[in-house]
Amino acid sequence: MGLLAILFLLGLCVGSFLNVVIWRVPRGGSVVQPPSHCPDCEMQLEARDLVPILSWVALGGGCRGCRARISVRYPVVELVTGLLFATVGLRFGLTPALLPFLVFMAVAVALAGIDIDTLTLPRQLVHGGALAGAVLLTLSAVVDGEPSRLVGAAIGAAVATAVLFVLHEITPRGMGFGDVRFAGLIGLHLGWLGLAQVPVALLLAFVFGAVVGPAWLVVRRRGRRTPIPFGPFLAAGALVTVLWGQPLAHAWLG
């Protein structure tokens, strides 16, 4: 339980940083400078304003200076990241695989948030996640004495990329190339766990899209031709598969 509590608190802090990434990266800003500030009055935030979840609650969801509303998405991202980190800790324990999949979770959350806001999946985040994943997964495989996992990771990345690339070529307006890149990142990690988990993640992504997509349009009051971000569904399919992919793969493939 001590490890899970530590990972939950770490996830809350990482989630706070991911909110900065989600806001600044699509706008071409640095995630380091300037320090965190209110986008309306530009007041620099103090340490007491940056405590995950608690600061938002204490301030009533508004800026301390100008009282401009702060989106509920901020504490939601922090809480979701904290819960995901704790769940990954429960899944892997204190093993070499823990770090690469914590990083993967963080990148997936950031990409999903950006896609919801801007309908884009920045290549620098995807490529950075792929580079970090390749290095950390390689180290994990070497420490575990299972270098064959790297073959699965390479094949998983290639297969997932190929599948979504074909869909992109068939319906480029329905499947952006950012989704193709993201699929490769997902295939890299899930192929490392086991090749059977790659199709599970992709299938879940399409199921989530088919179920949630229409509700998304209703909530946003948009027509059927309105583009729907697919990145969040890819992220959800991947995250579910990281946590429960083995039993799902066994149930599906026997």
Comma- or semicolon-separated keywords:
254 residues; mainly alpha
Structure notes:
The protein has about 250 residues and is mainly alpha-helical. The two termini are about 35 Å apart. The protein folds into two domains: about 1-95, no CATH class; about 100-254, no CATH class. It contains nine helices and no strands. The chain has helices at about 1-25, 55-60, 75-90, 100-120, 125-145, 150-170, 175-195, 195-220, 230-254.
Radius of gyration: 19 Å
Structural class: mainly alpha
Unreliable sequence segments: none
**In the residues, how many domains can be counted?**
2
Overall average pLDDT: 89
Strand content: under 5%
How many strands, which pairing sense, and closed or not: the largest β-sheet? none
Which overall shape is indicated by the principal axes computed on the Cα atoms?
A: globular
Helix content: over 70%
Secondary-structure element series: HHHHHHHHH
- Give the CA-CA distance, first to last residue: 33 Å
